TrEMBL record:
<protein>
    <submittedName>
        <fullName>Putative 3-demethylubiquinone-9 3-methyltransferase (Glyoxalase superfamily)</fullName>
    </submittedName>
</protein>
<dbReference type="GO" id="GO:0008168">
    <property type="term" value="F:methyltransferase activity"/>
</dbReference>
<keyword id="KW-0830">Ubiquinone</keyword>
<feature type="domain" description="PhnB-like">
    <location>
        <begin position="5"/>
        <end position="105"/>
    </location>
</feature>
<dbReference type="GO" id="GO:0032259">
    <property type="term" value="P:methylation"/>
</dbReference>
<keyword id="KW-0808">Transferase</keyword>
<dbReference type="Pfam" id="PF06983">
    <property type="entry name" value="3-dmu-9_3-mt"/>
</dbReference>
<keyword id="KW-0489">Methyltransferase</keyword>
<dbReference type="InterPro" id="IPR028973">
    <property type="entry name" value="PhnB-like"/>
</dbReference>
<dbReference type="InterPro" id="IPR029068">
    <property type="entry name" value="Glyas_Bleomycin-R_OHBP_Dase"/>
</dbReference>
<dbReference type="InterPro" id="IPR009725">
    <property type="entry name" value="3_dmu_93_MTrfase"/>
</dbReference>
Length: 140
């Protein structure tokens, strides 16, 4: 029997607001069920649970969610929308307004990093970026 895995995000009373925020950013997303303690929602087919667990635990970059983008327009969209009210970091990382860490990365990055000739230049370019710029990576 297959047992699907889904992350549980621990919030301090912001579970519904966070779920609604994420569903407004990602296409094909929806809130499935909710009660005062838990909100079940889906982002592009991945199910999440948002828990109003209280102030005991905080998010950290040790757990992040990767959004792989094919175009610069997609990177720009997710970077701006997820980063609203949060904090932008280096190399495609950001913390959203709820403290959840995200990585907004171009799909071409894996190919560049696996090419022995292109990888050092791509890595050098990447280390100078906050938001990824696909053309700058390709031209490095």
């Amino acid at each position: 029997m297959t047992h699907p895995l889904s992350p549980c995000l621990w919030f301090d009373g912001q579970a519904k607001a966070a779920a609604a925020h994420y569903c407004a950013i990602f296409e094909n997303s929806r809130i499935i069920a909710e009660n005062p303690m838990v909100v079940i929602f889906e982002l592009n087919g991945t199910r999440f649970m948002a828990l109003n667990g209280g102030p005991q635990y905080k998010f950290s970059p040790a757990n992040s969610y990767v959004v792989t983008c094919d175009t610069q327009e997609e990177i720009d969209h997710y970077w701006e929308r997820l980063g609203e009210g949060g904090k932008y970091n280096a190399c495609g990382w950001l913390d959203d307004q709820y403290g959840v860490s995200w990585q907004v990365v171009p799909s071409i990055l894996a190919e560049l990093m696996n090419d022995p000739e292109k990888a050092p230049k791509a890595l050098d370019a990447m280390m100078q970026m906050s938001k990824f710029e696909i053309n700058a990576l390709l031209n490095a």
